Amino acid sequence: VRTINVHALGPSGSGKTVFMAAMYRQLRIRRENTDFYLSTDNATAVHMNSVYNAVANPQEEWPSSTRVPSEWDFGLTVSTPDGDFEALKMKYLDYPGATLTAPRAAADEKFQKVIEQLKSAHALLVLLDGAGVLACLRGQPQGRRFLDFELSRSLEIVQQNRCPVHFVVTKWDLLESAHTLREVRDLMLGDETFRDLIRARQEIPAGPMRLIPVSSVGSGFAAMQPDGQMQKLGQPARPDKVHLPFCSVLPDVISHLYAELQSTEQGLLSRVQRQVVAPRGTPAAGQGGLDRLKDAARRLMASQLARQLMDRNPTLARLLPDNSDDLAYALFFIYGEVSRRAAAVTEKRRAADASQVAALRAGVHDQLSALQLVQAQFQEILARFEREYPESLLTGGPGDDYQNGERIATTSGGWQ
Amino acid sequence: MSVTSSEAAMNEGSYAWPFAVSRNAWLDWRPCVAPAHMIAQGGEYFLVHAADPGDRPCPSPVFERVISTERYGDLTVLARCLPATADLIGGSSHEQLRDRAGRPIQLIEGLILPGHQPGSAAGWEDQLARAHEIALHAFPEFWRSEDETAPPTPSQPLTRPLVDDVTADRQATDSEPGSAVQVGPQGRSGVSARRVIVSAVTVLVGLVLLYILIRVARR
To answer: Interface pTM (ipTM) of the complex?
Structure first.
């Protein structure tokens, strides 16, 4: 089981710790219409639950801000009548805000090692403080501090990575009654640095970028005081959309893998795509001579493609299987998922996807089939979200494609 | 007593530098008091994680941690966590200070000792009190600062008095009406070498007298 590394960045007060706890709280139980849940070790579970309990209890203080970097390991498990199968591992690295804003922290040995780990990120989670966004929309001075200073280092790190980036607008409960996600998107794209970052991303093979609104406590739980402090109001907490950043990771890492493979050697990828037409499990015994020859060619090309990817992006290449047969199948899987995502979404297509999920659910018997099922369910969840918020996709929407460094298609959701 | 940092570092066990770590409404966690030589080298930030109280309740008793650093080698951290209340900035001790998001702030203060010195907390009680005073003095300016680049207040090494002096000081303090000296939970040994010798001689003389009495009684 491969591990996907997600690095969470955000200045102090952006809500990283509370978001992580709310996300775990939401995903630790198998929810309606899904077959997966999140598991972790006992110490992490106790920590996450105690943080969230403190948040949700109106009588308790908000948890103190993070002083030290933390790593959280999660297993994504599919539950079936025949047993549970771990489809994927996810490691979240939570950076204290000071690593991004305090110049004297930059000289620290431990923080330098943590920043060095950014090279191993498969996805970046950049938390945009909803209170800062609100101040920007209202034209308040704190808004300028948020855009010009607090966000600055996170955007530099995004520039230096090609992996998927999820800009998560926290404290959405403060914004939702007066502002839309489109207004937030327009605000962010109105900032020259942010706009140029998005533009540069569209010219290279890279993972998608999304803008995702979340509320770790839900509407009516807390209100912002005139001094900016958040005060609990005594209502129960109802986390909103906190699962979406997690569900976006796997589909977007697959899109990134495809974009990188596409830029290795065009002809080679096309030949692999033509050859790799059958899922793994096609019996080798009894194959004709021509089929065996095709099978050998398929493995050879898949290995060659993986070697090229290793040269270009070793972090990403390490997510692919080592075994040549599994590798060929992984390429088939990636190609299939990207093609499916690029196809037009119609009612007929939705029905077909739903029946595919039902078929996958019935057939889960190992880690790979479990991975296929969660990927299909993540795609369904994302498709629903994108229909509601098409502006959430900043780059890398369905239909986006790159050829020789040139963007050749756009979507209504992409940056215009 | 004034000593240079390098002199102090040579005398492991005798010197310790006060430090304090906190945050204010805008600036994130950072040292607000740190050893002068570490500030000069730009290496004081490690105190934030070296003295992190973790899940300990706040206020906490003094906790001890031995850490290894590339730049300064092994160091022993003696620290405690206190809630940062408004009396630190001239307000009420009942008012909790908070950051701009409304989260409570703590003041983590203590001493940093060169080398590997486990079990040394009890010997530094007086200097921990001095470190508290230094932190109180530095905090108001730290609270007002919005400068991300501002260095912490530099601290000079404090010396540990000889054990006999500590005992003598403590006896003198105990004799003052209304004063209270708290002894750490580890049960710091306030027993001097002189007292041990006197006790041993007394026991020996007692045994000799007992022996003579027994011999006389048998006759």
So the answer is: 0.76
